[in-house]
Structures
1.
Amino acid sequence: MNTGENIKDAYDVIIVGAGPAGLECAKNLCGSNLDVLIVEKSKIPGEKVCAGGVTFNDLEYIPKGILNFPLNNLHINYKKMNIVVSSPEGLISSVDKVKLACYQIDYLKKFKNIQLLTGIRVTRIISKYLLELSSGKQIKFKFLVGADGSVSVVRRYLRLPVNKLMTTFQYTLPKKLESFQIFLDDNLFGMGYLWIFPHKNYTLVGCGNDLKIMNPKTLKSNFKKWLMLRKVNILDANLKTAFINYDYRGYKFGNIFLTGDSAGLASGITGKGIYAAFLSGTQVARDILQKHYSQNLIEEWLKKKKKQEKYIHLLKNPVLRKFFLSSGIKLLSYKKIQKRGIQAFA
């Protein structure tokens, strides 16, 4: 793999973004007769605001060896209720997104048909066969893959609106906490939630909510209020913000494709998008290579996403939300309900 030297004037495939979706797409194009260029705006791939939560389904794509902990228990808190959700098959862990990107890139390095360009933005899609980099260089392509997140330059070129968007805020605490936790609070976080995801040497504490339910300023203020009430020290912590797009409007537009958050494939209930990113990267590579399988991975995921999001209208109504959350938490105390919940939202 060439890591940026001798950028050519034309490629068969250009992938915008070196997150899980973009790198997985490139992985499935390795060893083909296609010249592939990955363009990543960050100098270090994987530096994105994300809790790095991994559930059992993600192990189709992520080896257990790079996870922080075994997949164990998740604590769900609502008012004075605390429910521990667990599964013998495994439930939740975390992965460092930079470490994950390095793992994916190490695989790509074995193949000469893949190039990775970091620290450079795609500033403009000029036409369906030409784009421009922040360096001013223009490059031709046969296929273009948007894997550049919720604020996607590729999606913008396609003129696809984004009407379903979550705002997220996250602190990195310089110490490891012991357990994975989710806090539901319909007054502070609306239909969203707060998460505590431990990593080996630090902990990610964040929250998210639908942009139309709560504006970012209010969400940020409520987040800090929650932290102060629990005396969480954030003086040495770094606050970052990001968006999660869950407004899916298609993924294939002629020779241009969208994956992951660019396509709006994240769950509108949990905000989780790693699994959808991986499978969409795989499916887009299959489409480019014209490999046909009995199942379309994106279409299969959309069925599950639709089932999850059918509850959104309940969560948007403050009165129904209180009833839905309190009754839902009580039901989770039953193991059979836990198992069904894990299958539905993993």
2.
Amino acid sequence: MKLFKLFLLTALIPFILTANEDRPPISYNYLSKTNVQHFIAMMHKRYGFDRNYLKRVFKQAKLDRDTLARYTGKFKKNTTVGSWERFKLHVVNETTFKEARVFKKQHYKTLNKAARMYKVDEDYIVGFLGVESHFGTYTGDYNIFDALATLAFHPNRMQKFFKNELKHLFLFAREKGYILTKLEGSFAGAMGCVQQVPSIAEKFNFDFDGDGASVWDIEDCIGSIAKFMHQNGWQKGLAAATPASYKGSKRFKKLRTSHKHMLSLHAIKKAGIKPLYPFRQQHAYLVKTHNATHDDLWLGTKNFRVLTRYNNSANYGVAIYLIAQALK
């Protein structure tokens, strides 16, 4: 599952994307760039792509200035990773919870099949899809080729990563018979209802309903998430987290909070933290969500770590947990 870690670097969350209407992509002569010519030669020699095809495609490529701005200059927190306030505004709210219940009812048969096959909890599958693509209704409106060409051939902090993704976009489109220049997704090239970058989509696209694998097919996405959870050690029936209270100021600073390192429950309670519901684990991830006026604390189980292996963000894990809880 190492390839999934490449995807995590981009911290892609579709619901925080802003439409690129202020500065739309503009024409750009990519064929004049030496690194593009080297890329064309490599794709022809190593993967057998026709040189004329590659040149025709790059003649159509545009410079996506908004996408490039996200990955140049000083990294600004929450420009590509959602703050907890953004999660609450766009996802962790009653409207989304209602839509989650409708989605679960509409796709219950597929969800149940996936949950039984992979021994996972269907409510968390719904949570994943709610956060990733608003239950498949929003999969991104950026031209993926423009975005990846921009990031592959203009200096930025993840240029090497995006150049590799551009290569896999060509391979993925050829394998599937897609028109490469027509594909749409996130500002960093993630596609479909589970938002996979091309290298991940190429390797892990999953046919769960028997009609061919597609990253845009909701049933395939349900199966893909269930398979991911299983392969990363999901324990069925174990809640991913529970809310906790703490004494003191509205900002918690007593202990290190992390979704990667567990603390003993004894140490957590000694710091004045109490789980609001029964918590029978002896160790927990102490997770903090930062609100405008205060911090909230959560005790995460091993299943919480599984959630964050798909997207390396505690906010992401808590959002999935809350959607799942709303379905109980």
3.
Amino acid sequence: MDTTISIGNKGKGVRSDCSVTLTLTNKNGIDLQIDSKVKSLFGKQIEQLARQILAFYEIENAILLVEDSGALPFVMAARIEAAVRKLITTEKEFLLPMLEQNLYQTVRERNRFSRLYLPGNTPSLMINAGIHHPDGIILDLEDAVAPDKKYEASFVVRNALRNLDFYGTERMVRINQVPRGLEDLDYIVPQNVNLILVPKCESASQIHQVNERIETIKVKHGIKGNIWLMPIIESALGVIRSYDIATAAPNVVAMAIGLEDYTADLGTKRTNEGNESFFARSQVVNACRAAGIQPIDSVFSDVGDMEGLKNNVLRSKSLGFDGMGCIHPRQIKVIHDNFAPETDEIEKAKKIVNAFFEATERGLGVVSLGTKMIDPPVVKRAQRTIDVAIKTGKLKQNWREEEHVS
């Protein structure tokens, strides 16, 4: 059995993080060593937190080296706890208090134009992410975390959900591919996560497995409220089964496509034009629309090409997507600006919705605009445009009353 373990990150360029090396011994009590540039200011707090965690796990004899690069308490606690639980067998969890502002839930129907991916084992990228106001922040436990770091990343993500201010954005976690990802749920479900992304999804049964595990955890912890799911389609098989996946459960609110893995599965190269993924993206959009959920496009990987990103968003929007992923905060504004309805779209939608209300008020069974008949799906799409315009501030909530008065 191992008696020494090292957890965390250190070295040049590492910030807002720490590395801990824990050795269990048979005697001599706790030997705590702190190496930190801020030791003179925060040394006592670091020592207090470390001793509190060791005492919580009833460790009386150990050598603990903390090499600190400006880690916040929730990060340091995650690193120390992960080290402890690598060396001992226990069901206990050391949990810092949940921030009151993290107790919110999100609704099924909300803007999901942007979702910002953040590596689950890189705390420095998480700390101020909320100030950029993406629609969702994804703490990623899958592709962004090296295989030998996934265990410790689970503690960082768990603690971030409890102690990091997300400024009201939707708090998302991408778990690992099922079945490995089922273990991730134990760490995140009790922490009021709003939405879980299920990567490389290829069947409805994977969604069922995730929900079964979620329900077991919710019962165990007495958790109420919804936890939404967003499957990610990343293979040819997933594309073919996309409608079954989209309709697998009531808490599936959106479905995304991941084009890097999809094009790799096809054995082709991903291009900005997207001809190689046109079928798959259209299939996902149609599956989502048929299921009544949001279709979400893949990320645009060139963070320096804003014009390319804009063109990509416009192509995505033209295919029917409601949003896309992003990997850098500078992409958020471009995504929001170009997924939001344009002025001509809003004006057309207003005319259609006005015509519908006027026909309804007059008791007419047919809606017309000028000489054209308007079908219910057209009215529904127009109302969706109006709703998005209101949510993005491009249209006032009481726009019909104001136009009637004028």
4.
Amino acid sequence: MTMTRRAMIAAACLMSAPAAFAQSTYPGGQVVTIIVPFAAGGTTDLLGRILADRLGARLNGKFIVENRPGAGGNTGVAAAARATPDGYTLTMGTVSTHAINPGVYAKMPFDAVKDFAPISQVASVPNILMVNVDLPVKTVPELIDLLKKNPGKYSFGSSGAGTSTHMAAELFKVSTGTDMVHVPYRSSGQVTQDLLSGQIQITFDNITIAWPHVEAGKIRALATATPERLAVAKDMPALAEFIPGYVAASWHGFFAPSGVPKEIVAKLSAEVQAIMREPAVIDQMKKLGVDPVGSSQEQFTAHIAAETKRWAEVAQKASVRIE
């Protein structure tokens, strides 16, 4: 082998060494921050903490959650988009931040496609339609009839403008020809408290937060926003039984800022997929009413594109635009 040939091989090895080194040693003793763009205690926060715990154990590192709520998730996700793309700042994204908000907000503080590398869809979370127990309805048809007779009289709460819980109600309004007043909150916990007290009468929210109150008889659940009935509540109908084609499930995913080395993103994707197959994690999520997913980067990217198109159409029909 000539010296020139050896030099070329050596140079190629040196060029590939940083990426290979980064992948094999990551996180290498450094703290990795997972930005959760919603308040502590919500579904996104719970899933982020599960990932932080399991990734830390599997990669022999320290992963921490940092809550940065605001603007329907835009505040925290924007912070992640601006972070140094070295793999040490990641974020939990949702159907809101990466599929709904681009079609709802007139001006976004980040580009949901260009600024992020999808790692994996972590989970799918059913939304359920719930009402205050004093509202004189026990079925979906009764609620529709009440709203049609009293346009604009009743209010629904959501965890923020543009969130899945907001748009689930907007889809319901468009599909049924009804009218309700939107009251946005900063967290699902606040929505639940005001639903319990009667400050608001209606909400679509993740099953993880409200289900204990439903089981205790403090909140009345009318239907699930999934295509079919839930295994945990087979007696509760799906909204699709009354509104053909109605689906408004929430999903949660893991993202890296664009520019993070592809080797690190691929490594994280493989780890998340493995975590979502762990029996203990599956059991933990099922107890929360969450369906673990653990998709590949390619599958997640395609899912985001389809959801972005669908929710943009809903926002246009419902005339939802946030300036």
